[in-house]
Amino acid sequence: QQALDIAEKLVQQEPGRADRQADLVISLSRMGDRGSLTRALEIVRRLEGEGRLTAQQSGWRGVIEQMLQEV
Fold this sequence. Notes:
The chain is built from 4 helices and no strands. It has about 70 residues and is an all-alpha fold. α2 runs antiparallel to α3 and α3 (about 35-50) packs antiparallel against α4. The protein is globular, with a radius of gyration of 11 Å. The two termini are about 20 Å apart.
């Protein structure tokens, strides 16, 4: 929870930074509940649509969608 709080504050301070958004996605995914995973997926879809995911992050959408199916 503490990491999530920190990530959310950093995104609020610098909302345009994709790396901060990515950190938030990781924290939300680690929470593992449906609401957090849904929020993480929304962020990933937006970043993907904007072309702001790195090659390493390009598979995140599929992973989070799979996690949502298992919750």
